[in-house]
Specification:
9 strands; Glutaredoxin; alpha+beta; two-stranded antiparallel ribbon
Length: 168
């Protein structure tokens, strides 16, 4: 499993962009993790799946609630990762109204989750290989804090915990 001080996996994620701008075309666009984190402070959290109960009702809302405070405390971007495709993540972003606050990034084939050692096998529940629920503070591509949830838990990876760690 990835640990404090490690660099994030050098993989590509995908982001659905609805409005053309900054050289991005409409539709799924690749996000090179190494390039996108260079020189930035990122509050990253991962969820088992878009539109799932805890993820939609608690996890994403906890970061929406703390987004302004996180950015005021020095976080450049907030990322939400899930093992879903970019189209699903785009639809979830619209549903949760995350525009301008949280980047909803697709780890479609679980490359990031696998490389970080943070996978969750939900095959028996019909969901296949997913990401574990966790959060991490990343500075210039390196892990500064890591909060991995226990099975079925949502206690340490929320926005309020991340905000306390950023301020601490």
């Amino acid at each position: 499993m990835i640990k404090l001080g490690d660099k994030l996996p050098a993989v590509k994620l995908a982001e659905y962009v609805e409005v053309e701008g900054n050289g991005c075309s409409i539709g799924p666009n690749p996000v090179d993790v190494t390039q996108a984190t260079a020189g930035k402070t990122i509050a990253l959290f991962a969820v088992p799946g878009a539109f799932t109960p805890t993820c939609s009702a608690q996890h994403v809302p906890s970061y929406l609630k703390t987004a302004d405070a996180l950015k005021a405390a020095g976080v450049d971007e907030i990322w939400c990762l899930a093992v879903n495709d970019a189209f699903v993540m785009g639809a979830w972003a619209r549903d949760e109204k995350t525009a301008g606050k949280i980047r909803m990034l697709a780890d479609g084939d679980a490359a990031f989750a696998k490389a970080a050692g943070l996978t969750l096998d939900l095959t028996g529940k019909g969901l296949g290989l997913r990401s574990n629920r966790y959060s991490m503070l990343v500075k210039d591509g390196k892990v500064v804090t890591l909060n991995v949830e226990g099975p079925g838990k949502f206690e340490v990876s929320d926005g309020a915990t991340m905000l306390a760690q950023v301020k601490g």
